[in-house]
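mind reviewing this fold:
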Amino acid sequence: MQLAVRKATTSPDETPAAPQPPRRPHWTRRVLSALLSLVVLLLAVGFAVAAYSVKSGKWEASSVLSGSMEPKLPTGSVVIAQREPVKALKVGDIVIFHRPDEPERQVVHRIVTIKPSKEGPVLETKGDANETKDPWHVRPDGDTAWIVRHDVPYVGYVVTSIHSETGFRVLLGAGALLIVGGTVVLLWRPKKPTPQTTTP
């Protein structure tokens, strides 16, 4: 016994549904995406410039790993110092120097006294949180000194890696990746789906 198979046909009055155009993202989402991409790019460029400036010797970055300068410089901060002529030093400046008794250690303290001498000025320093002055006298090396100009809280432990060759390369690589990633995000546009058409 054979069963009759009936073909499905469409009525002449029935027309295939027109393909719906792809929905465009809301304008607020597009604006937020553009702003986020711009922020990523600016951060990447900032990291790269900061790393290069520190490595070139124009600026110096040092971590504050003790509480001797609190509350001005909390533990874990990083200070950015600029190389300035020694004659520009004045009482109240925060400077970066190496301890005379432990040259391998850097100190970030405030100048409380400047005494002239034949060999150049002699600095007495003190941490803001300390009750007494430091037990040493600092003689700047050469004609320049590092005067703190900026500080950023809570990132000091990370910035110490800039002074190592590996850390410097990692920082530059991260900056380059952020620049490339931000550029891709800014320029990339999702491919619009091709509308499908049906024939009656």
Observations:
- The radius of gyration is 32 Å.
